[in-house]
Amino acid sequence: MAIDRPLTERIRPGGEGAAIAAYEKAGGYEALRKALAGMTPQEVTKLVTESNLRGRGGAGFPTGPKWSFVPMGSDAPRPKYLVANADEMEPGTFKDRLLMEEDPHQLIEGMLLAAYAIKADVAYIFLRWEYRLAERRLHRAIAEAVEAGYLGRNILGSGWDLDMFVHISAGRYMCGEETGLLNALEGKRATPRAKPPFPQVSGLWGKPTIVQNVETLCNVPHIIARGAAWYRGLSRSEDSGTKLFGASGKVARPGLWELPMGTTIREILEEHAGGMRDGLRFRGLLPGGASTDFLVEEHLDVKMDFASIARAGSRLGTGTMIVLDDRTCPVGMVQNLEEFFAQESCGWCTPCREGLPWTARLLEAIEEGQGRPEDLERLSVHCKLLGPGNTFCALAPGAVEPLQSALKYFREDFEAHIRQNRCPRRSG
Amino acid sequence: MLSHREIEQIEHELAIVPRRSGACIEALRAVQRHRGWISDEAVRDIARFLEMSPDEVDSVATFYNLIYRKPVGRHVILICNSVSCWIMGYEGIRKAIGEKLGIGLGETTKDGCFTLLPNPCLGTCDTAPALMIDEDLHRDLTPGKIDGILERYR
Lengths: 428, 154
Ligand SMILES: Cc1cc2nc3c(=O)[nH]c(=O)nc-3n(C[C@H](O)[C@H](O)[C@H](O)COP(=O)(O)O)c2cc1C
Ligand code: SF4
Ligand code: FES
Hints:
The complex is a heterodimer.
Chain A: H1 20-25, H2 30-38, H3 41-51, H4 63-67, E1 81-86, H5 96-102, H6 104-118, E2 122-127, H7 132-147, E3 163-168, H8 178-185, E4 209-213, H9 214-226, H10 228-233, E5 242-249, E6 255-260, H11 265-272, E7 282-286, H12 306-311, E8 320-325, H13 330-344, H14 350-367, H15 375-385, H16 395-409, H17 411-420
Parallel strand pairs in A: 1-2, 1-4, 2-3, 5-8
Antiparallel strand pairs in A: 5-6, 7-8
Helix pairs in contact in A: 2-6, 2-9, 3-6, 5-6, 5-7, 6-9, 13-14, 13-16, 14-15, 15-16
Chain B: H1 4-14, H2 24-35, H3 40-50, H4 54-61, E1 75-80, H5 83-87, H6 90-101, E2 114-119, E3 131-133, E4 136-138, H7 146-151
Parallel strand pairs in B: 1-2
Antiparallel strand pairs in B: 1-3, 3-4
Helix pairs in contact in B: 1-2, 2-3, 3-4
The complex binds flavin mononucleotide, iron/sulfur cluster and FE2/S2 (inorganic) cluster.
């Protein structure tokens, strides 16, 4: 049987989150056995590099090369850490939840393989508190894996040990930023750290650490089991593998689908999401969560992969799109987004701490009918002031992406608010 | 003073962190589980136990939105106010709760039963609008469903 959606093939509607017996029966933990019996850690990293797997948490950094920066050998600092980033707080994103609730062993096996590749001693799942069901299923799955000898001392007789813990977060979007996450794991405020040193060399408690998104890790067992060429062949573009794509907003059937990397936006929207709800027209979308630039009608045939979406002027981000219809106000939508980012700013650096609340208040004024013509220029200036290179972490540059593109594609909506002194879509 | 149960839960975390302050978030969570919220006294209790200053503990406590530095009701409603829920009718849900309970965001009902708090994206945007009450997730909401859902927690 040809397997074309490896990440979700085991998931059944109403399934109870595959217990270990079902997971093993479907070939689970075979990749781990294969790696521990016949591959060095370096060979695992090399295979992942050849597969061209790129991070699914938003930034798209190549995964294998990231692992290769970790110091190896008997004089490497220890303990080393592997962290699964399961914070998933990017508004509009709901993909890691599914993977953890419905197939927790797949994540654990992916973490085991990544941990083996860097010879980690301890692994953490950094999970947002709100994912209660995922927490229960992960705890059960970890206990099963310990019982079966996949976790703990001398795993499968290899002489290698790994402990795995779940850390439950106490909130805040910044916990998902990889160095903010490390500070949160150390019991501190989730403000980011200066790089270099990079976490691969000096991360959690100053030791070598890899932070990887849940979906990224879930790909690893399949790559080890079936090889790099197979994995690249799953895709319809230069970026390899499949991707969990999602759609929310007023489409006919909001949801989540595992599809080849490089599937077009149109196919996802029309065939899988069923087009717009009756009577509504498509106006635009954020392709990969709140911190990506709007794309519009002219981009519908763009492929959903890192390079194609970048060429269209946005980012693949998390691959879960948020759709704007013609009866929802784009100014109100951007106001909602900027209020989120202003609230979640950690306050560490001035442009973001001061600039994002300013931006949110300007948008509120425009939406409430108190905007002035010069406000649009002010907003554009803020997009530059908060852009890449001016702030400590990527939160602020991400925050301006939907704003700068809304100013470009929905300019007439902003102008109408200012001209009419009200939101044209609101009655009364 | 921390209770035996609180100390037991914090010790569990202390076993895996190399520095006592590393258990700060877990300690805040453990104490909040028992006392409902984090009072100034709780901050001092945790600080003494983890050998930190009260200000250090408070700087952590006030950073995280799921650590409550004010008393909350017996049930906490976390309503998603992020973008997909906003598009799908968050405002109507918030108003329906307000009409039913007579409270706005950040407020607690007079009988101490409910506190209403806004929360970023709950990660269930394809079934928006959504909210959580305590540990339960409620999805695909309409204003008409709010009454029935709240009644279950009375
Ligand atoms: C403000 C902010 C929030 C983030 N939140 C998450 C998150 O919830 N989950 C995630 O995997 N990555 C998140 N990231 C990206 C991480 O910093 C990091 O790039 C990622 O976890 C690396 O894993 P990957 O290469 O597998 O994608 C966030 C980044 C920023 C700037
Ligand atoms: S850009 Fe914002 S979130 Fe990032 S460090 Fe600066 S203040 Fe904090
Ligand atoms: S925006 Fe409400 S659940 Fe994602």
